[in-house]
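#struct-pred
JK: can someone run the complex with zinc ion? inputs below
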Amino acid sequence: MTGLTLSQKTVVKRLEADMLSALQKTRDKIATGKASAALTRWFGANSTALANSVKGKVARMRSVLLKRTIKCLDGEKSRPAGTNAEALGYDTGLFDGGISESDRVARMLDDDDSIHIDPNFKSLPRTASGAASGWTGQDQLETLFHELSHIVLGTDDEKLDDNATTAYGGANARRLAVQSAARPQNNAENWGFFIEECGT
Ligand SMILES: [Zn+2]
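RT: done, C-alpha cells with the ligand placed:
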C-alpha cells in the first residue's frame, strides 16, 4: 500500500486478510465439489474441466497474493468520481501460456502493476449481503478480487450481448453467465463475485 490515506489503509489491510482466506476457502470448496451452484451462477456451467480450470486460477491468485505485494495506490485525485478502482498490469496477466519462463518471472518481479483505489470505493458496502442469487451492485471485497483477476489472470471487462453494457455488478455478471460460455471466464466481475460467494 503506497500513498493511501490512513482510513484507506485500514480498510484495504483488513480486506487483504479476508482475501487470502476467501481464496483458500474457494479453492477447497471447488476441490470438494461444493462449488457447483456458484460455478453455474457465475460461469454458466459446472463441468469437471471448468471446475479444475477455475480451481487452478484461484490457486494462482492466492499464491501471487502470498508471494508478493500488490501495491494499492491512491487514485482518488486523478480518477473520475464514480469509479471504484483500477488495475494496472499486463493485458495477458502473469501466467499467460504464450510467454517464456523468463518473461513470466520478470512479470512476477515487476511491482509496477498495482491497484488504484478510486473515489467511489469508500462508498461501496464492505461485502455483499443476502443470497448470492440476489446480489445486484458491487462491494469492496468483490472489487479487489475483480482487480486482482485483471493483474493475475489478465481478465477483461466484458460486455453483455447488447455489445454496449459492460457486465459490472452482480445482476449483469449473472446475465453474462447465461448469455455466453466463454466471456464470463474472461470477465473480472464474474471472478469477483464467484470468489466472494465461495469464500465468505
Ligand atoms: Zn475491471
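RT: quick notes.
Strands lie at 71-74, 85-88, 114-117.
The pocket of zinc ion is lined by residues 146, 150, 157, 188 (CB under 6 Å).
JK: thanks, will look after standup
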